[in-house]
Amino acid sequence: MRGLSTASTQADKKITEALMAANAGIAIDAKGIQLHKTEMNAFEFDATDCPDLFPPLVALAAYCSGITKIKGVSRLAHKESDRGITLQEEFGKMGLKVDLDGDLMHVHGGNGLKGTLVHSRHDHRIAMACAVAALRAEGDTTIEEAYAINKSYPDFYDHIKTLGAQVKGGIDLSALKEGFKG
Known about the structure:
Layout: H1 15-21, E1 26-29, E2 32-35, E3 44-46, H2 54-62, E4 66-71, H3 83-93, E5 97-101, E6 104-109, E7 117-119, H4 124-134, E8 142-144, H5 156-161, H6 173-176, E9 180-181
Parallel strand pairs: 3-4, 7-8
Antiparallel strand pairs: 1-2, 4-6, 5-6, 8-9
Helix pairs in contact: 2-3, 2-4
């Protein structure tokens, strides 16, 4: 990945800390950030000050062996959806067990995911997290209301195609209303 500033003041840059904690094979240098395939392990992460990271953290934790603990669930109730419950339910459809315990989320990863029908709940971050998680899921995934990504990242599906994702429906809003297949 190029163009990401490690000196950014954006809270979302903390994703690099989660990747390192998960043993994701991350290397950061002046040229950019590189990821190398490796066995990943469960991690602990405090997302209280960066609650928008919960969806990608759950997608990451799904492929980490063990139980990942993410703190800050109380910050999720008043987003585009109640993200704690939404992540639990939508990733649950993919076969991932997610427990909510007060301000903690426990993600039971490492067992793989299955492709299925999920719903974005009109939440751009849920749509993107489900799409990313579906990249390694067994079988096809359809995301209802997939066009929710247009709120923040209209080129998202085009960009994951460059990673080898098979996207059906394109970026045309009328086609995306039918769902994202990956």
